Amino acid sequence: MRVTEMMRYNSMTRVLTQLSSKQAKAAEQALTGSRIGAPSDDPMAAAQIVRLKSQRQELTEYREGMSTARGDIDYAENTLGQASDLMLRVKELAMQGANSTLPDEGRASLAQEVASLREEMVRLANTQGSRGYLFAGTNTTTLPWDANGNYAGNNESQMLEVGRGVTVAVSPSGPNAFNKPGGQNAFAVLNDLVTALQSNDLSGIQSSLDTIDDTHTQLVAERSRVGLTLDRLMSADSALEFAQGGLDKQTNELGAADPFEAYSASTTFAQALERAVAVSQQILNLGSLSRI
Amino acid sequence: MGLGNVLNTARDALIAQSYGLTVTGQNIANASTPGYVRREAILQTKALGTQAFGTVEVGGMRRATDLFTQRKVYESIGLGASAKEQSRQMGQVEALFNDFQGSGLSDALDQMFGSFSSLAANPSDPATRISVLDRAEAFAQRANDTANALATQRNEMFAQAQDAVKNVNERAKDLARVEAEIMIARSGGGDPSDLLQEREELLRSMGELVNVRVIEDGEGRAVVSAAGATLVEGTNFNQLSLDLDDNGAIRLWSSSASGAKSEVTRFLTGGTLGGLKESRDVDLFKVQSQLDEFVWGVGDAVNQQHAAGVGLDGQAGRNIFDLGPGPGAENASRSIKLHADVLGQPDRVAAAGAAGSLPGGSDNAVELVRLGTRPILAGGTQSPGAAYGALIADVGLRAKRAQDTAEHREAVHAQIENLFQSQSGVSLDEEMVQLTKYQRAFEAASKVLTTVDGLLEDLLRAL
To answer: Which CATH fold would you assign to the domain A51-251?
Structure first.
């Protein structure tokens, strides 16, 4: 084959261009630690990474939703705890009032104290969390319990998605805690006690001790149900965290450049480039012209 | 036979050798001209009537090339230019869908479903409702931007194709002119080498733009066809023109001097023009319609689910997105925007499934969140994330294939160019030898001259 100068120059240019572009790419991978800078670098892996990313985002959303809900549930549990403690205090007062040796004036002051505890109970039932009234079902913007203990909320539950296709009712039930159908009406129980104390009705006070106990049990039961929801959310959260870790690992396996491989490729191409430059110099010195 | 004839012989030799030197000089001068075909001086013996001794004469020059190699060169230039253009265009498209560098729709999509998730967790919060509309609008906006960028690119490609056609037409005119000059040169006994060189250079630059084929008729006239249509025949030339069909795809027409037009689109396979056509009407078109399908699919599913729920005013049946006039998914990605029903009215975002559960009900918001993972796209087989992944994979594959083809064709072109160079290129080593050869022969002819001169002088002195 007849070899001309143009052939030499052309192939020199071509080889040098190719090598330096390969070297630049390898160096970029080694620098960034990422194997994929654009979809065309590996279309299938790129698609997979985009999918993993949106899955990860989905998990993040679940976790964020849960953390918002958790604050409120925590708050609700606390509130129910306060309410059940309040019932314990009421029981103490009722027992004092049931003592026949207590003078009537004593019962009148006990009645005042119970009346103020009743107001406290209404306040607790109307507690507001970050998403409105806690014990109102989904009717979160209207005051759910008036001074007489009438319920203005509804029996719906706020639902929260905590995983694909898994929803949890996250709102505590107001009626279950304060005015359970077939159970006790906490406000009425307190009212009855106030009336009995005011009228020195010893048998009335005596009988209210049972209803006070029942109300206490009712509040504790709702509290523990709420506590279970909280537990459930926390365990769901740690499961999601684990799943996120798995997705991160997959993404990394798909998209990350092997550091040793990337470094050695970058070095190999750099050396190849140096060799090509050296050979090019030799080629440029070839030919009769340099000897004339 | 006499000394006078020897003088003539020496004169002819000097003329012939300097012709050789001139040709060599020209070769050296054009050693780095791309496409230059080296020339060889043809020296032949000249018979002087019936005499026993002839001299030397210049028989013109030979160009070291043939039509076969030239044709291969034009073809490989055309295929290379076409693939390079496709790769360049797909590189631009890929940049629009590069979720690894922050462009693309996946962030906007994820954030929109994320805002549904926040809505499910906190349905009565006004700020959350505002952010749902914000995110939905951001998704629509991103879809608009991407679709507009694709549309702009397609428009620019059409303008570029028109430039290419204009250039092809100018070259066709030039070719016809050069052909006429070649005919004049040939009929006048002149040397058409430079004109042939010009013809080849014109064909090379035409080959960059469109697939060119050239044959020679019986009288050595070139018949050039571009995209299958005869463009130049001797001194006659036709023109190419472009327009768009009903679907907005490029059509290429060839029109003769008589004004008759015929469509040659399907024969357009090479050159920048071929690459532009393929890229614009196949790759970009497919990407555009896939984007439309995706955006429409997501928008429609979100609309249907949203319409099933009720806003804070208890009313159902409202859409979040206005998907444009269609039909179907057509142009959805360009026209998608927030629906007038909900625009600026965060109260109307339907988080609750029924009026009874207002304002804290979130069952419809939960359903909206679930759309993000449900197979609502590609005929009910892919979730939005998966469908977008498939779109990315398609764009990536197209870009990669274009890159690979461009690399491959560049290698083929380099080989063909080497073949051409090997046959027709100037080798300076060779030319140095030629230079020395003609120089020595010139010196020897001068020596003949001085020798005869010396003999004649001796003779004259003796007389």
So the answer is: f41 fragment of flagellin, N-terminal domain (1.20.1330)
